[in-house]
Design a protein that fits this description.
Elements (H helix, E strand, L loop, with lengths): L1 E12 L3 H12 L4 E5 L15 E3 L3 H4 L2 H9 L4 H4 L4 H21 L23 E3 L5 H11 L3 E4 L1 E9 L2 E9 L4 E12 L29 H9 L3 E2 L10 E3 L13 E3 L21 H4 L1 H4 L9 E4 L5 H13 L3 H9 L9 E5 L7 E2 L12 E3 L7 H22 L7 H20 L6 H15 L6 H21 L5 H26 L23 E8 L2 E8 L6
Parallel strand pairs: 1-2, 1-8, 2-5, 8-15
Antiparallel strand pairs: 3-4, 6-7, 7-8, 9-14, 9-16, 10-13, 11-12, 12-13, 16-17
């Protein structure tokens, strides 16, 4: 296996919304920029098929910033706002409009009929916290803008691990997902932008179809795993395991805020009190307020239906336009082929799968706990607005850092050993004649997490799950095999998922309480007021995970 060396000022791992926005800004500020994406930046990440709205604070629409934060926290952002440091959230909300204006100038239509349109995810009587936009071609536009400014994009290279140590990052190790090649990156600053933890840690809505999810199944927490191994701080790893927001049954795509209708029970009753007929200004925000309490098939609550009957022609056109821009063309085409008419038929919705929402710790400058290492997007403070803003911020801050720094002198023996480890692992995976493939190993993890770290959590159940994960992790290293580079990439992603799954269970054990939006412990059914305003941080110290509680200034309480 050959090794190729690449030197740069700013290395960006991940070419999604955050990674490309970071590349654009860093390159225009004069940095030498390299973006490594394990897929292709034209179609990778959560924004691959488009998006339809972005959270952004507009004073003339939303009033004061505190009013905006309070209103936004009542709906979609409620749970995450309680664990997001206020300075981080304020940076997102106050700078999103700036980035939206840039996107609009680059060719991503951010206005509707010439105006900022704040609809969907909205309570009647309050301004919507999101601006609607037509993001179907956003990845193509951002890729073009990155290349135009001189950034180098290396597609089909997965960021395997970071080089350096807990005192500072010096680069990264990448593996070519198509050719037998390792890439050794040397960089003054590194930005992690590999996305969230998608549908492969827990069972999906249709387990036999692992890719049927609102997020790509290639999102496997690669950046989090690499950051943790280097010694960076992660937090809120225990979050998840609760019933989540409903989406279209069996054909999962994002875009719930663009549906124009009313959620109803089978007997025709509205699920919530906010809307009684289709209205594009609001959608039906009840699904964001209490989906776990109002709709949980495990307890016999539901099902619920999206009822668009009575929709006006203008609102139908509006809904279909924004669903298309959110990547729902397949859904729309399928329903047309099946003769489904929104004016006549109700559409079945279902809870989306459980997943970990753990993050990399960052501040308002996108700095992590490791010198020279930054993160953006769903690595920490996500959503399209958060990805765009912290992509922009991380590009700026990483460039400032790189201009003051020299190309680090690597610890040659340490880095050589790390690269040798990955070469050996890859060669073993590719040359084994017998053994389970990535899917076997991945499904074993999904069932373990669903059974032992899912909806029902107690200390004995979690401890049993932890033992299973650790036992399986050791087996994965010695028996997993791949017959081609595509399978090799899935194997490496599965290794990352196992490493993160252990942290999820350890954090769940440490949080001895139940808390809305975090977890439900049947052996600790109360919410501990002493943990309000605190987050649970984990980092690797002397090759072992260490957990600590950290007080933050909450965005909302």
């Amino acid at each position: 296996m050959k090794t190729e060396k690449v030197e740069t000022d700013v290395l960006i791992l991940g070419g999604g919304i955050a990674g490309l926005t970071a590349a654009i800004h860093a390159a225009e500020l004069g940095a030498k920029v390299v973006v490594a994406d394990k897929c292709n930046t034209l179609h990778s990440g959560s924004g691959r098929a488009g998006n339809d709205d972005m959270a952004a604070y507009i004073p003339e629409i939303h009033g004061t910033l505190d009013q905006y934060i309070e209103n936004y926290g009542k709906g979609q952002a409620g749970a995450t706002s309680r664990t997001t440091p206020r300075a981080v959230a304020v940076t997102h909300y106050t700078r999103a409009l700036e980035v939206a204006q840039l996107w609009d100038a680059w060719g991503i239509p951010m206005k509707y009929k010439g105006r900022w349109e704040c609809c969907g995810h909205r309570f009647p009587g309050l301004p919507g916290p999101h601006i609607k936009y037509a993001g179907a071609k956003q990845k193509q536009v951002l890729t073009e803008q990155s290349l135009k400014r001189g950034a180098e994009i290396i597609n089909r290279v997965m960021g395997l691990d970071l080089l350096g140590d807990a005192k500072g990052v010096t680069g990264a190790v990448g593996v070519d997902t198509r050719q037998d090649r390792i890439v050794e990156f040397a960089a003054k600053a590194v930005i992690l932008a590999t996305g969230g933890i998608g549908p492969r840690m827990y069972l999906g809505a249709t387990p036999a179809l692992m890719g049927n999810d609102t997020s790509p199944f290639t999102l496997t927490g690669d950046g989090r795993a690499a950051a943790y191994r280097l010694g960076a701080e992660l937090y809120q790893m225990e979050t998840g395991g609760l019933p989540t927001l409903p989406q279209l049954k069996n054909y999962l795509r994002a875009g719930k805020g663009s549906w124009v209708g009313v959620f109803r029970y089978p007997d025709g009753r509205p699920v919530g009190p906010y809307v009684t007929k289709p209205d594009h200004r609001f959608g039906d925000i009840i699904s964001e307020v209490g989906s776990g309490e109002l709709f949980d098939p495990a307890t016999g609550k539901g099902p619920i239906w999206m009822d668009c009957r009575g929709i006006t022609d203008d609102d139908l056109e509006y809904m279909e336009w924004f669903l298309f821009n959110e990547g729902n063309k397949g859904d729309l085409d399928h329903m047309r082929e099946e003769g489904i008419d929104f004016r006549k038929h109700q559409i079945l919705f279902w809870p989306t799968p459980t997943r970990s929402r753990g993050k990399i710790w960052q501040n308002e400058k996108a700095e992590t706990s490791i010198k020279g290492l930054y993160c953006a997007g769903d690595e920490s403070h996500g959503g399209i607005g958060g990805a765009a803003v912290f992509g922009w911020v991380s590009g700026e801050e990483a460039t400032k850092y790189a201009k003051k720094a020299k190309l680090p002198s690597p610890d040659k023996e340490r880095d050589k050993a790390k690269i040798a480890h990955w070469k050996s692992s890859i060669e073993a995976i590719q040359t084994r004649q017998y053994g389970p493939n990535w899917e076997d190993a991945n499904v074993a993890l999904q069932h373990t997490m669903n059974d032992f770290a899912g909806l029902t959590r107690t200390e004995p159940i979690l401890e049993t799950g932890l033992a299973h994960v650790r036992r399986l992790r050791k087996k994965v290293d010695t028996i997993m095999r791949a017959v081609n580079r595509w399978e090799l990439t899935r194997c490496l992603e599965t290794i990352n998922l196992y490493d993160l799954a252990e942290l999820v269970i350890l954090a769940a054990l440490e949080r001895k309480e139940s808390r809305v939006g975090t977890q439900k412990r049947l052996d600790y059914e109360y919410t501990n007021p002493l943990l309000g305003g605190k987050v649970l941080v984990v980092k690797k110290v002397a090759d072992k995970p260490v957990l600590e509680w950290r007080e933050i200034q909450q965005t909302i309480k």
